[in-house]
Amino acid sequence: MLRDITIGQYYPTESVIHRLDPRTKLFGTVVFLVSLFVSRQLSAYILATLFLFGVIRLSNVPFKFITKGLKGVIFLLILSVSFNLFLTPGREIFRLGFLKMTWEGLQISAFMALRLIYLVLGSSVMTLTTTPTQLTDGLERGLGILKKFGVPVHEIAMMMSIALRFIPILIEETDKIMKAQMARGADFESGGLVQKAKAMIPLLVPLFISAFRRASDLAMAMEARCYHGGEGRTKMKPLVYAARDRIAYLVLWLYLAAMIGSRFLPL
Amino acid sequence: MNIIEAAHLIFEYVSRDENDNVTGVSTALNDFSIDIEKGSFVCILGHNGSGKSTLAKLFNGLQLPKEGTVLVSGMNTADEDSLLSVRKTAGMVFQNPDNQIISNVVEEDVGFGPENLGVASDDIWKRVEDALAAVNMQAYRLKSPNRLSGGQKQRVAIAGIMAMKPQVIILDEPTAMLDPSGRKDVLRTIHELNKKEGITIVLITHYMEEAADADRIVVMSGGRLVMDGTPEEVFSRVEELKELELAVPQVTELAWLLRKRGLDLPEGILSRQELVDSLRKYIHA
After folding, report:
1. What is the spatial distance between Cα B30 and Cα A127, in angstroms, rounded to a whole number?
2. Whole-complex ipTM
3. Best of B57, B101, B104 to disrupt the A interface by mutation (most A CBs within 10 Å)?
4. Which residues are A37's β-sheet partners?
5. Size of interface A-B (CB pairs under 8 A)
6. Where are the beta strands (DSSP E) in B38-189?
């Protein structure tokens, strides 16, 4: 069961979006996120909605998978909506003690909620259609410019991919240690928050020790396999843009231009 | 021709307290010399702390000796410039299969070594294919290593080394964490690589059974070489091995006990078949 956990929640299926170069998808996500903030017109929201749902359609990922990401932000969503709803000055709808709901508040909070939801959906589409390996590869190549400013892009990408490889192993190990401690009478279930946190110490200490040991083993194994940083390294699966990527870039630029253009529309 | 020549190696582990004062020195290798012939299958046996793992790390430059030299295919491991060639020539497989696989996909992991060597993409694919075929793991090339058994993971690790086209593979207790079937799998694989591909194998282990099929056995104790010879020669010295707290293979021990009781059996019996044959001969004689 624990072996099946994949971080980044990739949804394996066949689609145009899946086949796009990870760099295109990363760029597309950034464009989409930015586009949500360039205009407040109703037309812009309609365009963003059409764009987002068009991409979701193309990705062949069931809609309910994509909305799973919303669970994490529901609290934030309610909080920001209610603040905007009641604390925006303007024409009053009704009053509840010192709180008053206004038309302006209603409008702002509706758009705000939409923005937040689209932010999450937009980035979910990317993580659902890109494997973690592709993602780190895309980041490494896409952020290659940062290398000129002294950012260790290759090293960061390598760290990310190794972390992804070891997450299931460490989860399995946690499970093992937990069972071993429970067999000797440790109690992870009962007690308040503080007590539960304290109960974690005998779990975390051995876990950390083993993680460090693994890290040192792995470093040696990598060295034995001639790893010497990103310099002079080739790629087994180099990233190459295809025709569909060029089309995607064109669509993205058009979309962004239209979103900016919507600022000058009456609605 | 020798692929590895190690002469007068001395290696010490120095433990220090927090002020960097030396609190103790343990000698892992003490004037140790060995030559390993190209194409041979050499097994290095020794008890825990005999210095055998240290020796493995010296063979491909992961550690450097305090004194003495290690030459791999004529290249000195202490020479900074030839370090990559040394590691490419002498590949190393470690004990824990999980801690030496770096990718989430089998084929990508096998490609890791060639990527580091700067091999062109097309050539990497070919090498990966050949390496996976050599360890008979082609069917798993797109699988996640997390879904493989220990023996399979260890074969992937061996493929990862094979993809670098090494001349010698050093295996540091590769079967210690495996179940019996995984152990058999790995041993069969390395014997095949030795016979079919002509790869020199240096197998470090403390399982006597694994040593029985080697061309040569080297026994280490306290950082020194104490025995060196064919399996027959080494395993006929049962008493000495017992003194070193090394157990001989069960069959060999049984034959030895029978001999002690006066049965006229030849020395250095290594397999069940040999014992059965010589017992049959003894009874009929």
Report:
1. 55
2. 0.86
3. B104
4. none
5. 92
6. 41-46, 67-72, 75-76, 90-93, 168-172
Confidence grade of residue B23 (pLDDT, cut at 50, 70, 90): confident
Cβ <8 Å between A225 and B91: yes
Instruction: Please name the residue that has the structure tokens 């080494």.
Output: B234
Q: DSSP state, B163? A: T
| Å between B96 CA and nearest CA of chain A | 8
Q: What is the pLDDT of residues A141-156, one digit of tens each?
A: 888 888 888 888 888 8
B248 secondary structure, DSSP code: P
Residues in chain B within 8 Å Cβ distance of A132: 104
Strands across the sheet containing B2-16: B22-37, B2-16, B67-72, B75-76
Q: Which domains does chain B have, with CATH numbers?
A: 2-230 (3.40.50.300)
* Mean pLDDT estimate for chain A: 86
CA B267 to each of CA A145, B211, B237, B251, B278: distance values in angstroms, whole numbers, following the listed order: 70, 17, 9, 12, 11
Note whether B15 contacts A: Cβ–Cβ < 8 A.
Answer: no
Closest by CA to A57, choosing from A8, A20, A15, is A15
A222 and B102 within 8 Å at the Cβ level: the answer is yes
- Residues B47-100 pLDDT 10s: 888 888 899 999 989 999 999 999 999 999 999 889 999 999 999 999 999 999
pLDDT at B264: 83
Which helix H or strand E contains B34, and what residues bound it? strand B22-37
Element (H, E) at B216: strand B216-221
Q: Decide if A202 contacts A181 (C-beta within 8 A).
A: yes
**Spatial distance between the Cα atoms of A159 and A163, rounded to a whole number of angstroms:** 6
Q: Taking CA atoms, what residue in B is nearest to A133?
A: B104
Q: Give B119-142 pLDDT, tens digit per residue.
A: 999 999 999 999 999 999 999 988
Neighbours of A217 (CB within 10 A): 16
Q: What is the pTM of this model?
A: 0.81
Q: Which of B84, B59, B69, B79 is nearest to B31 (CA)?
A: B69
Residues B100, A164: C-beta atoms closer than 8 Å: no
**Which of A166, A170, A164, A165 is CA-nearest to residue A209?**
A170
- Record the tokens describing residue B104, joined without a space: 């989430």
Q: What share of chain A is helix, strand, coil (3-state, %, to 5)?
A: 75, 5, 25
In the chain, the amino acid numbered A14 is E
